[in-house]
Amino acid sequence: MKSNKSKPETCELCGCEPPYNFHHCIPRTLHSNKWFKKNFTREQMQEGLEVCRQCHRTLHEMIPEKGLGRDFNTREKLLAHPDFGKYVQWKRKRAGIRKSGEMP
């Protein structure tokens, strides 16, 4: 999750590429939705991850916006998603990155 830290050197999801996009854990299109206003603070709705273009595009292709906001609104939950988690594992394996994010 984004905090007052500096921008990470690699994608917070795959660890393979530099991050170019900021992914709002609760998509901005949902910030005015009553359910989200009732269940999350403004600060929570602004939280997000620094991600590479490919991970950002892939997660939005695999998971509908409401699903992202309600069920997959943290890094851990995104990585636990059956399809997206497999994608990240595949991408890390292809890049030769271990789970910890270190090169072999």
Descriptive notes:
This protein is globular. It has one domain. The chain is 45% helix and 8% strand. The chain has helices at 34-39, 42-46, 53-62, 65-70, 75-80, 82-95; strands spanning 21-24, 48-51. With 104 residues, the protein is mainly alpha-helical.
Q: Helical region count?
A: 6
The order of strands across the largest sheet is 1-2
Structural class: mainly alpha
Q: Which overall shape is indicated by the principal axes computed on the Cα atoms? A: globular
β content, as a range? 5-15%
- Through-space gap between termini: 26 Å
Give the count of structural domains.
1
Spans of at least 5 consecutive residues whose pLDDT stays below 50 are none
Mean pLDDT: 89
How are the SSEs ordered, and which strands pair?
Layout lengths: L20 E4 L9 H6 L2 H5 L1 E4 L1 H10 L2 H6 L4 H6 L1 H14 L9
Antiparallel strand pairs: 1-2
Helix pairs in contact: 3-6
How would you concisely characterize the structure shown here?
The chain is mainly alpha-helical and 104 residues long. It has helices at 34-39, 42-46, 53-62, 65-70, 75-80, 82-95, and strands at 21-24, 48-51. It is globular, with a radius of gyration of 14 Å.
